[in-house]
Amino acid sequence: MHWPDPLDAPGAPPQAEPPPGCPAAHPDSVPLSGLEFQQTPSQLYRSLRREHGPIAPVLLDGGIPAWLVLGYSEVSYVTSHDELFARDSRRWNQWAAIPADWPLLPYVGHQPSVLFAEGAEHQRRAGVITQALEAVDQFELAHDCRQIAEQLIDAFAGSGGAELMAAYAHALPMRAAVQMCGMPAGGADTEELVRDLRVSLDAAEGDDPVSAYVRVQERIQRLVTDKRARPGSDVTSRMLGHPAGLADDEIVQDLISVIAAAQQPTANWICNTLRLLLTDDRFALNVSGGRLSVGQALNEVLWLDTPTQNFIGRWAVRDTQLGGRHIRAGDCLVLGLAAANTDPQIWPDGHIGAENSAHLSFSNGEHRCPYPAPLLADVIARTAVETLLERLPDVVLAVPPGELRWRPSIWMRGLTALPVEFTPVVG
């Protein structure tokens, strides 16, 4: 699965018991922050690789030490060996140094969801999600996404301009995800949930993400209760009816994970693709209605501007060696998905072959996105991009490309805004 930005983490921080001992940071550790990381991370990945090789010692918020896994082979190895690098963060050897208000705590503190489950429990929880998503009709999903896209475009088509991040890219996958889970299309209750999900995952100034997240949990709990009584043809009902017999509270946690994974990364995938199409001359001649070029742009973005840049993380089960480094039991490893995708070991001539799909943007191994999820995300993103270009064929950026700004995050790769202009369309 994709995960939302830890900087926008909702809810109260989960608690975990600190194990004894807090090893000191590596003397050459590099802070995982700063403008270079936010705006030109690829340059920083190259310098880290030159100085440290495929595994770099880094410092998280507050000077907390971790390892950033930069190499394609090394990320693949870590994600393929759960017996050495596991997801249960209660193993972390840094808990005694973590303050109660640490920004990343909601994303590393152990939670009773599929994201932190391991072994047979993870297989049980992930299996339920996989089978529920496998039953989604991709043609029906594309139809629903087209309707959502048309409605969103109708709201700004007559104005001749729009800011697409807020008005389109973020709203479309959120509406698609909640409808896929069984919320009725267009209802006031559904729109309220969409607003609260937006606030809880990507709070703006003045928003209250904690209260919004509480309302999201309550609304998903009501959805699960309703679907338990009156099942339908939706993801929630299929999870409830699965022979694994998940409890309602387990399904609530996992549904929120599914919706969050479907929204923010997919929104950034849509917007990063639109940015590429609107700024790269290779796509200029056939951008309007050129389905092949849209597919190429979507795939190229996963290689070069993947929405999930870095993911925290994995925790070493025991002392081991990785990329020439001694990894101690309980050390935290941050998966450098973006760095791995541009590893010169797999692109020795310096040219990224974006025509293939062997990227790590959906991670790898048992904890990667469940098999149907990348396909469904592709349906949502492709439909969003194609519908916009078909409805507004002369759309152009409203600002010079150099004025576009990336969000100040080391975790997600997405623009703060994507302002565009086009010929107004009435009716």
**Briefly, what CATH class?**
Mainly Alpha
- Secondary-structure element string: EHHEEHEHHHEHHHHHHHEEEEHHEE
CATH topology: Cytochrome p450
So, the CATH homologous superfamily?
A: Cytochrome P450
N- to C-terminal distance: 39 Å
- The assembly state of the depicted protein chains is single chain
Low-confidence stretches: 6-22
Portion of residues within helices = 40-55%
What Rg, in angstroms, do the CA atoms define?
21 Å
The overall pLDDT average reads 87
Tell me what the structure shows.
It is a single chain. Helices cover 45% and strands 9% of the residues. Residues 6-22 have low confidence and may be disordered. The protein has 15 helices and 11 strands. The relative contact order is 0.19. It is α+β, with helices and mostly antiparallel strands. Helix 6 (138-156) packs antiparallel against helix 8 (171-180) and helix 9 crosses helix 10 (209-229). Strands 1-2-3-9-6-4 form a 6-stranded mixed beta sheet. It has a single domain (6-421), classed as Cytochrome p450.
Topology overview:
Elements lengths: L29 E2 L3 H5 L1 H12 L2 E6 L3 E6 L2 H9 L4 E2 L18 H4 L10 H16 L3 H19 L4 E3 H6 L1 H10 L7 H14 L7 H21 L5 H6 L7 H32 L11 H14 L6 E6 L3 E3 L2 E3 L4 E4 L1 H5 L30 H20 L4 E2 L21 E3 L6
Parallel strand pairs: 1-2, 3-9
Antiparallel strand pairs: 2-3, 4-6, 5-11, 6-9, 7-8, 10-11
